[in-house]
Amino acid sequence: MIDCYTRRTFLGRGAAVAAGLVALPALDTGFGPTVANAHNVSGNAARARELYAAMQKNFYLSDSKLYLETSPRARSNPYAYVWPFYEALAGTIDLLGIGAVGKSDVDDRLVGLAKYYRGTGSGYDSYPRSSFGAGGDRYYDDNAWVARAFIQLHRMGVQSSPSALGSAQDTFRFLETGWADDRPGGVYWVKDGGWNFDRGTGPTGGFAKVALHLSELEADGVQKATHLDWGVRAYDWVTANLLTKPGQGQYAGRLYWDKILGDNTIDTRYWSYNQGVMIGAGVLLYRLTADDPNDPTKKRKYLDQAVTTADAAIAYYDSVGWYTQPVIFNSLFFRNLLLLCGEIAKLAPADPARARYATYLGAAQSFANRVWDDPKVHNQQKHLIKFEERTSAFKLREQAAMVQLFACLAWTDAKNDLSLLA
Predict the structure, then answer these.
(1) For residue 383, what are the CA distances in angstroms to 42, 70, 403, 407?
(2) Contacts of 307 (CB under 8 A, 6+ apart)
(3) How far, in Å, CA of 201 to CA of 207, rounded?
């Protein structure tokens, strides 16, 4: 259980902010309201490149192909956990999609990722394995994000050995072990400790997305059907158990609660990444569901739920403040929002949902611009991101999250196929 304290501490601190129990600290980097060189960098692609360059300069360890968790390292571990490492991997893949980095950058990330790999069908440990570390508990949400990255590589046609699709399928075999038949239903948060029995929207929705992606990509056969069944089962479990219930306020049927705890009580907080994974799963189910002449609403219900959740989430976080959410959660939300944008752009011009494209893209761009222009968060001389005043250290997960967001927005500028974002 090398990192359970670290992850629980982070989530607990974020929970207090989101619940309104503490005020978000005023972050002071020591810079004035504007710094000229930051604002000379315009455009999503250019900003993504600057943030990536700063990430590589301040966090990357070229000898091992791993990253520091914080910069400066201070009292943190020698290497980053797999969660922030994934964030750096995802940002690198997104940048490859706009031609801002070369395939060698992605290859280096895959070499680093392999140091967390436990073995065939066993997923990725939370910390590098021997000789770089002692491994650690395996988190199902972490592994779902890693599988998503492999799927994006496959969709982009990036060649790797082993194949990206094969790696996603291998990771999914581990994800299947997280299904809680004994509870029943939902995907557990963590595999190894025996100390946590939470089943949440994040790991279960992430599981659904991977299953549905695989079903969409695989040839007809038993495996394709099995993955579709898993995706539907996981999506339905979350909507049945964690979609806010009637009588529970204005977000009933619109936003998703966080998780069912081990004692079967419900954590009713609204995290942005949970809304995102369910939006993404709904988009994939919409794409995979055939039109039914006997029930014309069957296919559309998944898209409509994704739109309903997206609208409610934007309204909610506009109200409580996007900074109440960890930036990595927001980045994941906006990635899935752009996946939804790619689908509603295909609707007929008269379709009411079609008008959401500009709204959703505007929400993502507004948040990205706010972070870039905020001298309390963005060190505008070094292009480093830091949301916490209580530490002098910058965090890889925050830096990589903003690399991803600006890179994904640059995909829209380049008119790339947003369905490839996975």
Answers:
(1) 13, 15, 11, 15
(2) 340, 344, 353, 356
(3) 10
Secondary structure (3-state) at 357 = helix
Using a CB cutoff of 8 Å and minimum separation of 24, what contacts does 119-126 make?
120/170, 120/173, 121/170, 121/173, 121/174, 122/174, 123/171, 123/174, 123/175, 123/191, 124/82, 124/171, 125/82, 126/2, 126/3, 126/7, 126/81, 126/82, 126/83
Cα gap 97→416, rounded to integer Å: 8
- Domain covering 4-15+43-421 assigned CATH 1.50.10.20 in the classification: yes
Mean local confidence (pLDDT), 128-143? 96
- Cα 245 to its chain centre, rounded Å, is 25
- How far apart (Å, rounded) are the C-alpha atoms in residues 392 and 379? 12
- Domain borders along the chain are 4-15+43-421
Beta bridge partners of 259: 200, 267
Alpha-carbon gap, residue 181 to 169, rounded angstroms = 21
Matching residue, tokens 């339905």: 236
Residue 220: burial class (beta carbons within 10 Å; 0-12, 13-18, 19+): exposed
Q: d(Cα 216, Cα 400) in Å, to the nearest integer?
A: 28
Average per-residue pLDDT in the chain?
Answer: 91
pLDDT in tens, 283-301: 999 999 998 888 989 999 9
Alpha helix (H) residue ranges in 254-350: 272-288, 297-320, 327-344
Confidence check: pLDDT of 207 > 50: yes
Helical packing angle, 82-96 and 103-113, nearest 10°: 160
Enclosing H/E stretch for 363: helix 356-373
